Amino acid sequence: MYYEEKKKNKERLIMYCLMVVIITLLLVLILRTEVGNTNTITEYNAQKVNFDENAQTEKPKNTSSSNNIADSVKAIVGISKLKQSGSSVFVNRAEQKLGLGSGVIITENGYILTNQHVSGNKYSTCYVTLDDGNTYEGNVVWSDGNIDLAIVKINKNNLSYLELGDSDAIHLAEEVYAIGNPLGLEFQKTVTKGIISAMNRTIKIEDENQNVYMEDLIQTDATINEGNSGGALINSDGQLIGINSVKISNAEGIGFAVPINIVKPIINKLMSEGKFDEAWLGIYGYDKEAIPYLDSNLEIENGIYVAQIVPDGPLANLDIKEGDIITQIDDTKISKMNDLKKYIYNKMPNDKVVLYVERNGRQLTLEVTLANKVA
After folding, report:
1. Residue 256 to residue 217: CA distance in whole angstroms
2. DSSP character string of 293-338
3. Is the separation of the CB atoms in 267 and 151 below 8 Å?
4. DSSP SS3 for 233
5. How far from 312 is each of 220, 325, 340, 366, 372, CA to CA, in Å?
6. How far out from the chain centre does Cα 163 lie?
7. 61 assigned to some structural domain
8. Do 90 and 184 form a contact (C-beta atoms < 8 A)?
9. Would 51 be classed as within a structural domain?
10. What are the tens digits of pLDDT across the range 85-115?
């Protein structure tokens, strides 16, 4: 009995040992399989990293805006009302004493867009300094003091110029760059970066004891200083969308540019015909945004407020009065003075247009023959 029991215990021990051996072998096999898999994954990852690094050695083409901006700088010029001698024009308050400002080449054959207060009035002479340092006499072939823009022509071809953008397509917070010559030519082609802070701004400026209202402006926080006037406001594609005109002197980061679209009809005619005969309606008017400056009790929903009728102009003998609202010209409804100007710029002297006018709830229709604006 004892012998049989001992024999059974011995058999159980042998079975137990065999089970331990089998389990151990299975564990070893499992561990070896896992280690093998781990080595495979590690090797794959290493190959993947090496592949990515090799791919990065062939860098993609630079598609950033920096190249566009750098190229745009070549089209910025310095403009002075007085001819300079020597290589330097840096004097105290140079931008005021010498009438220094900036301009933008807009065609390869020497048309330059700037502010009127930089270049002077139509038919006047200014001096244009190009990227290569050479200075040329410029003739002001067109100007409009109400929007503070002018076009200057120099006798030079094959110039770098800026492509015109679409100022009607800009949007709030869009990235923009201002380029100009702040404080004189020693700081020429200074580039500052900002965003479009607002659109269709109307501001009041006191000029020679008169209040001047500038309308439909682009507001930007790109730094603009004296001397930047007439310089470029461009988008990230290097396209010209505005001409820098004025900044708020008692605030930081508030500057304004005149949108480019208003002068496109003039540029197109200069390019196609070599001249621009300006049609003229003969009124001064304001957008509804300017009305609070004029009369806090007056409100208009749409149209242009007629502030003044030029005595010898096309409207002088027609039934239109100060305080009337022009809502439409021909088939085009208007709500901004610049819209009216742009429409007229597309016309020729002696063309006829039809104005739709509101007066105290009444609707008037006037046919007008546009005059030739000679100055």
Report:
1. 6
2. HH-TT---SSSEEEEEE-TTSTTTTSS--TT-EEEEETTEE--SHH
3. yes
4. strand
5. 39, 20, 20, 17, 12
6. 12
7. no
8. yes
9. no
10. 433 333 344 444 455 799 999 999 999 999 9
Q: How far is CA 222 from CA 195, 197, 244, 253, in A?
A: 7, 9, 10, 7
What beta strand segments (E) does 34-134 contain? 76-80, 101-105, 111-114, 125-129
Structure tokens at 353: 């247009």
**What gap in Å lies between CA 54 and CA 58, rounded to an integer?**
7
What's the pLDDT tens digit per position in 12-38?
666 766 676 676 666 655 555 444 443
Separation between Cα atoms, residue 210 and residue 24, nearest integer Å = 102
d(CA 353, CA 139): 31
Q: Tell me the angle at which helices 337-345 and 264-273 cross, rounded to the nearest 10 degrees.
A: 10
At position 224, the amino acid (one-letter code) is I
Inside any domain, residue 353: yes
Q: What is the DSSP string of 109-172?
A: TSEEEE-HHHH-STT-EEEEE-TTS-EEEEEEEEEETTTTEEEEE-S--S---PPB--TTS--T
User: How many separate helices (H) and strands (E) can be counted in the chain?
Assistant: 7, 20
The last residue of a domain, from among 122, 153, 184: 153
In this structure, the number of other CB atoms found within 10 A of the CB of residue 96 comes to 11
Say if 207 falls within a structural domain: yes
Number of residues that make up the chain: 375
Query: How far is residue 162 from each of residues 68, 181, 205, 240, measured CA to CA in Å?
Result: 10, 17, 29, 6
pLDDT digits (tens, 9 = 90+) for 336-345: 889 999 999 9
Which residues are designated catalytic? Answer: 117, 148, 229
* pLDDT tens readout for residues 278-329: 999 999 998 888 887 777 777 788 899 999 999 999 999 999 999 999 999 9
Task: Show the domain range for 2.
Answer: 1-30
CATH classification of the domain holding 296:
2.30.42.10
Same domain, 256 and 283: no
